[in-house]
Model the fold of this input.
Amino acid sequence: MPESAMYHDGNRQLQDRFDSRRISDRLEEKLTRREFSDDDKLFIESMPYFFLATADAKGQPDCSFKGGPHGFVRVTGPSEIAFPDYDGNGMFKSLGNIIVNADVGLLFIAMHGKPQRLRVNGTAKVSASDPLLAETVGAQLIVRVTARAIFPNCPRYIPKMQLAEPSIYTPQAGCDAPEPKWKDFADFKDVVHPRQPTFKG
Done:
């Protein structure tokens, strides 16, 4: 089999220990791809959240929840997706990591309706001048990810949950999202950075 886009020596050690190398290779051969399918696009653009894994220049990991309106993540090319960065706590843990280490992993997981998971591993780039800024309500930066491996995961352990209502902080055209209460706590209010100007639609 050609060089794997999915596995390294650590994966292989455990696959060999548990005799799962053959099924792992078959899963990569049959399911892993570098371009998004029409079903991938529908799924990704229907999701109001995903999980983003990054690491700093030393390889120290970080995992972040990213949320927004349905469609805030877009498939923008055969192997590319883009998503906005919204106003947050100002630490820039994920995006700061991307600046020094472009390797990322994204996990899209549906816990309502039909359980579904999709992994996207690739390289990311952060931009303050991306054309998508002009059409993305509430965005202060845009992140584009070029996929190296797109892989649908087995959904068997996903619990069924109900999506009750969207976050009141989700950017919407024509209105300013409220500030989170923690920004007014005594420990923080004297150092809160100003909200950056963003496109409001």
Summary: The longest strand covers residues 139-153.
